[in-house]
Design a protein that fits this description.
With 809 residues, the chain is an alpha+beta fold. It has three domains: 54-245, no CATH class; 295-587; 637-806. The protein is globular and about 100 Å long.
Length: 809
Amino acid sequence: MKKVLLFCLILTLLFPFSMDAQRKKSKDKKAEKTATTTKSKQLKYTDFVGKNTKTDQGLFKVHFSKNKYMYEIPKSYLGKEMLLVTRLKDIPSGLGGGYVNAGSKVNTQVVVWEHFKNKILLKVKSYNAIANDSLPIFKSVKSNNLEPIIYSFDIKTQNTDSTAVLVDVTNFFSSDVKAISGLPSQFRKTYKVRRLDASRSFINYIKSYPKNIEVVQDFTFDADAPPSNQSTNTITLRVNQSMILLPEKPMKPRIYDKRVGYFSVGNIDYNSEALKADDKRYIRRWRLEPKDIEAYKRGELVEPKKPIVYYLDPATPKKLRKFIKQGVDDWAKVFETAGFKNAIMAKMPPSKEEDPDFSMEDIRYSSIRYVASTTRNAVGPSVSDPRSGEIIESDIIWYHNHLRSYRNRYLLETGAANPSARTLNTPAEDIGEMMRMVISHEIGHALGLPHNMAASYAYPVDSLRSGSFTQKYGIAATIMDYARYNYVAQPGDKNIRFVRQLGPYDHHAINWGYRVITAATTPEAEVNTLDKWIEEKADNPIYKFGFQRRGGFDPESQTEDIGDDHVKASSYGIKNLKIVAKNLPEWTSNQTNNYDDLAELYGEMIGVWSRYVGHVISNVGGVYEYNKKPNQSGVVYQPMAKSMQQASIEWLHKNAFNTQNWLLDKNILNKIDEAGYADMMLRYQNRFLSRLINTSKIKRMIDAEILDPNTYSAYNMIRDLRNGIFTETSFTKNVSTSRRNLQKTFVNQIAALLKDKDAQNSDIISIARGELTSLRYLANNASKRAVNTITKYHYKDLTATIDSILNPK
């Protein structure tokens, strides 16, 4: 019995080890089998690239087979910086309220492809913060600016010589990846977008070029409130992704200076030895380098190593090509000021026989696209290197119907003094000249120049009535202002130039931005020379740069204005517009035997009148801005003179707030609409009042009183407005429909100040309450003297309204 128990115990002790050994042996065999199976199933290059695969050679090889797109990424390009630009290629009607155009950039970001384990990561690299990698702070900058991963790709295999990896990009470009989406979050909210419909979304094509890859995607979203075709509950976009290899060696940047207008790129530089990081900005410009640097140093005109060349879209109508080419070539003379000859030019693209590989989408070629679209616009976008500001490529977009806008404004703004504008069939040479100047304007943007809204204020108003002056200097100091036509010139003025042109500021800006400072080896070493060029011209208004600001405070920096006196210029403009209004039927419906053009031009004529009024409104509470450095004398901000502000209010009463009967001509209105005339006039007058009676302007005027007690005060402005708008209360007379509406609007806008949170605890509340009290007294007394019943009711209604505002229940 003991032997049996002993034997069982031995078996019990030995059994686990025996079982473990068997399990380990079995596991080893299974792992060996799995490894063998995996090895035998490892995908090869030929599994993806075969005889039926379509391969596009370029920056990366792009393979297409079985509805799959594969990128063959050379390992030498891993970690290389590339620019990923997302554009709207084609859009539905009404997207963004009509203010978004096909060709608009949605996003621009620097990306790198990185190898991590068995994946390739696409990461966004930020240049918002930089530091030299040799400095200790570099580690902190990296740690506090972790680069986001846009997408992770499985490595499918390698090429035959193991110099490149293959990744499948199909899902990346056919899914709703927010980082490269053509539909920003605000649009998704506005149009109530629910999801991307994969069944109606696809990759249109992918093409690879030597320095870039172009992807075109068609995306269809389910949306409950699309901008157009609302019954479909659908938004379809065509989106273009451009991935561009950035230069190995960045261009030497030029430091931005707000005294000369340039688009810019910026970053926070932690290399600074100061007590804080530097906020560095560099201008955006093309890389122009002299072929012969010694000749350039001697002051000779020298060709650049690589000129700026724009290729015209083959779809451009033949009759317009010469004007587009001139619009580009006009800048060549400007670049001579910077020491370059033949620096910029336009060409027709090569034929298939001349260059079978030429494509307008190749990043090596800039283009001027002619788009068959009803959009009335032209745009001049460009792509730049965020490290240096170097402009790499640009595509100007011209929309077919844009010429109609120019024809209409040519007729309305110059027709009184310019016989060739008095027709719907504008002479071809005149249309061509307008197109030429629009192209020049857009090329200016593509060269790095933003709008300079101060340039139209540089010339005296009366000089714009001089033929010799306008033919030589144009109507504004730059093509980059919105000064399109000479609306100041009067009937009888001779040899007038009516259309804008390049001006002296353009030469100054291009010289400042593009002239090579050969003695300077760093951007910082250029600053003294750049400052000198600015300060030499600082006292001359034709070289002033003025920012474009929505609702801006500087009366010099306005859109669509010309001349240095808005009261005088707008008086001339309205005098001309009255002549046009009287002749509008003869120039339109009498010629076409229908009222379509009359209605269209009448609507635009109201807009022209509104612009002239708006220029004068900006005088009130206006503050001039003179961008300077501390070593320059004089102030930076200077309120407009009291006398000019008072004169502007008087002008506004005469030309805006008094009923403009010349705009309510029955010979036009009873041909184009059955009603709505009073509402139309009130809508514009309401807009004018809103620009005068608003918290920001009134606060600015209150601040001006602190600096100068004798300035035109906010109280005086509101009082003068009230006295003019309520003139009838001082007499026993009826009040017209338009004036009654305007008076109601005035009361409501003053009342709105009492509720404005930004106006609380300021003199604005006191002024508003005081004005309403005065108005109640005037309206109550006037109601007792009113001639007709409606005027009496009107005054009683105003009294009751003011009571409810001052004493709410």
